[in-house]
Amino acid sequence: MTFPGEDFRPTFATNHPEGGQTVADAINTLLEGMRTHLVSLPPVLIASAYFNPGGFGLLASELEQTGTVRLLLGADLDQDRPRIRPLASGLGRRAEREQIKRALEGHQRRLEEDRDLLGFSFEADATARRLVGWLRSGRVEVRRYEKGFLHGKAFIVDSPMPGVIAGSSNFTYAGLARNKELNLGQYQPGTVRAVRDWFEEMWQAASPYDLAGLYESRWQQHQPWEVFLRMLDELYGAEVEQEQSVRTRSRLNLTGFQSDGVWRAQRILDRLNGVIVADEVGLGKTFIAGEILHEAVITNRQKALIVAPATLRDSTWGPFLRDKNLRADVVSYEQLTGGLQNAGQLGAALQDPDEYAVVVVDEAHALRNATTQRAEALRMLLAGSTPKRLVMLTATPVNNTLYDLYNLISYFVTNDATFADSGVPSLKGYFDRAMAMNPDDLSPEHLFDVLDKVAVRRTRRFVRNHYVGDRVVINGVERQISFPTPRVHRVDYNLDDALPGLFDRLAIALGDRLNHYDDGSAVILDAPGEVLTLARYVPSRFQHGEREKQYEQQNAGLLRSALLKRFESSAYAFQRTLDKMIKDHEAFLSALAQGVVLIGDAFREWTSSDSDTIDDFLDVLDDDVDGVKNADGFDVPELRAAVEADLILLTSFRDEVQAHQAGPDPKAEALVEELAVIATEAAAEGISEQQTRDKRKVLVFSYYSDTVEHVHGRLLSAIESDPRLACYRARVATASGPDRAGRSQVIAGFAPRTAGGAADEDLFDLIIATDVLAEGVNLQQARHIVNYDLPWNPMRLVQRHGRIDRIGSDHQEVFLRCFFPDQQLERFLGLEERLQHKLKQASAATGVGEVLPGFVGRDINLTETREEIDRLRREDAALFETGGASALSGEEYRRRLETQLANPHIRDAVRRLPWGSGTGFVRVGGPHPGVVFCARIGDHPRPWFRYVPLTDDLNVTYDEQGRVIVVDDTLSCLSAADPGGPETPAALSDSIYQAAFPTWTHARRHIRDSWMHNADPANLQPRIPKVIRDAAELVQQHGVHLGEDQDHLVGRLQAPYSPRILRDIRASLAQPGTARQRVNHLAELADRLGLVRQTAPEPLPQITEEDVHLMCWIAITPG
């Protein structure tokens, strides 16, 4: 600034924005005056502790027109240093050097921070490029004084008309335009000469400093792998470092990957009091749980409970606990369900639930249906006054629907807002959103942000890739970890060879040829006698003034599907189901003749048509004495006609199948041929008798016990008559149904070396079993599995495969045979798809999402299932290598990051990347271009990822509502940005580089809007269902007698609970008696279920777009 009457040489400079005065104006006035009054452009000398592009921008126009410029930077004395000298810092020159070193490191960080805060935009990019252009012009030299502290600041014009402005202002935007600075201008030759001499002394002692390189690194084309690692480091870096620092030796001699799994599980347990260990089958989830049990039982002297299927209780957990010298109570699911009432009493299997500190649940997917008695029992166990750490073991946390996973999580995450700090204000809403995206999609990629916080999930491929050379002790012998290679063999057969034309008739009966199959009714009345109406199972369809009850629709839909699947399994299983249905129809018509309609109730345990629970459903359907209504409220003639037509049709099917039972069975004959091949190969390959026996051991799996019985009979006959199968004589057993003691004996006799005891004999080489044998047991002594039925649920095959494909197998290869009705396969799959679609249509027509009050309808992934079946048909073993879609987790990314960060050069390169660093690569076969951004918001510890797909001409895309499409789930973003490895070259055209700027604007706004949504308290209030509101209102109006507990009970009730809890609350409201009694029912229910008052999440602080900082980005170009 200058005052009136003075020349262009200001004597005083400060920042006074209100008065239009800045230090930058004063310096520009000086530089312009010198430039215009002198013949030659004068050199400029600048000394400043700090520098940023904002400061340069204020002086750029003049500095670009001056003579040479020397810029001296240096570290200022740290104002935050302690006034009292730390004794550990030492004395003398050494202490001073350490102080200077720390100051220079801080100075470097400050310069990098100023560079990073420049932002990512056209304007910021232009500013940085202008700065670098000036620094690289050949007229500018930069040095940094590193032998001490630089506190002086001066802007010197070195010319015959010398001048200097010196004072407090750094060469920064704040110093030149905003801060309350004090600077004086001095033009006396002697004074200016003294300042210049001071500068020269410092300059000669300073070192060259590449300030241009610091800023050029913003737009250097970094390698995709390096930038991707930076994304992973933002997400997992702190966690990986913490794990490395606290990693301890296993007390049970676990493998490296198992020990790492224990650490991750313990970390989740510390945060949530629960964890899902979802490692793929055969990787030793039992050992991970064992290490956790060791800490609880041995180190902490706590009591532990293990809940497991009865087979695993006896064959796995008993021997394991004895071998590891661990004490814990072990009960079956049935013991848990029936034993809580007398828990703690003398002779009871369970102690007082409050005695247990740790509960391990094996094969936890058995609890995925929240409406079962076993689920109720577990919640009661966990609901005591003592918090319990829950460890859930399952290789298949998602079986039929993503809500399977939600139900498992809800056992230990009781507050719907637990993950609000991760951008998930409502856990239930989070799953609802994922299901709404695609109800048929079982891939949990849209749930990654929560799944990564509650589960440990690794696969065989993961272990092979990241734990090369890891060793394990098996039977006292240390050996390197290895897995057998899975081989899939397809076995074809033709249904029509045994039952010609019957499948065509059955398909018609199930509605295959109806054109208007998408109506909302579960009852089909178009062609009675030709098409099954299933009216007997949907009597509400004929009730005056009523709509079809949705649980009845569910029953009818599952029955149609079960008939189809049992027909494919075996004619015998189909016949047995027909026998039950015929008996059921006859009983219904008899009751109808007496003036009553058998209603029955939904069988809540039945959730799948590919299991034996259909038999239980049909057996108990007419035993419900409360399931009777007077026929006066029904259209009896129409109902009777429909049921009678079905009875005739069902009987005709049964009679035709029965007539062919003694005839040939092409499916069973195909199995005989496969067993003959297996026996021949074993005899040729086996060296010893034991090895030969192991190589011919076979597990034949069917969904249905009726089929097991049928196949067993057929094989026994074939083995006796066929000399090729002589080795199997007297060595065949079955395992199905509830005979657990017999099942344990079969397991031990089939695989005594891996699933039995020291005294067990090798008795069996062939087992025909249902999936009761597919959970938990170690049968790796065998190398063959036969999947006798069409793989309707591929995850079942993964479970079966895990029985023989395990760590330490003596077999280099294991063989999985899959049966396909080759000529009719497409019709089978197409009909099942129509049946499922029909069921969904009926549910949609009812207008509610629950099949029962509190029961979410079964939803299977038809698209993924068909893709997996097609791969199996092509003999592709990928399903068994990867564990299926549910294998997705963050473990792969964590280990890749840990491996790379172990190299200090890579670690430094990744962490020194400037904010806003970008790159690109070509993805062969990629559908479209796009950009993935990794950002941070202020000092919040969590990174935010966004993937913005682009059109071919590099514009953003829009949805049907006209909104820019921005993908915000972390896994999709990481998957899109993953270049695969360091060998992928960078490929970033100028056009996509330029497109990244406006694309970031959309991503940044999306991040801000998402954050601000959770910053509004109104958006954080949970959506409370009407039944909850009714219950809370009842307590408020009639719960005065509860005293202080009245308000507390209202608070405990008001939360978006799972459908199962809603069902129980609805039942309490429907209890007979006074309002006060219903309040007491609700209070008892809240105590029994352990309902807790849920605190609303704290709203996030308000932000602007300026708080959203881009860390790095990767552009993907299809190629």
Automatic annotation (TrEMBL):
Alphabetic keyword roster: ATP-binding, Helicase, Hydrolase, Nucleotide-binding
Domain Helicase C-terminal: 679-852
GO BP terms: phosphorus metabolic process
Helicase ATP-binding domain residues: 266-415
Domain PLD phosphodiesterase positions: 146-175
Entry-linked InterPro entries: Helicase_ATP-bd, Helicase_C-like, P-loop_NTPase, PLD-like_dom, PLipase_D/transphosphatidylase, SNF2-like_sf, SNF2/RAD54-like_C, SNF2_N
SMART domains: DEXDc (SM00487), HELICc (SM00490)
Molecular function as annotated in GO: ATP binding; helicase activity; hydrolase activity
Gene3D superfamilies given in the database record: Endonuclease Chain A, P-loop containing nucleotide triphosphate hydrolases, Tandem AAA-ATPase domain
PANTHER family named in the record: DNA ANNEALING HELICASE AND ENDONUCLEASE ZRANB3 FAMILY MEMBER (PTHR45766), SWI_SNF-RELATED MATRIX-ASSOCIATED ACTIN-DEPENDENT REGULATOR OF CHROMATIN SUBFAMILY A-LIKE PROTEIN 1 (PTHR45766:SF6)
The name this protein goes by in its record: Helicase
Species of the source: Nonomuraea cypriaca
Lineage: Bacteria, Bacillati, Actinomycetota, Actinomycetes, Streptosporangiales
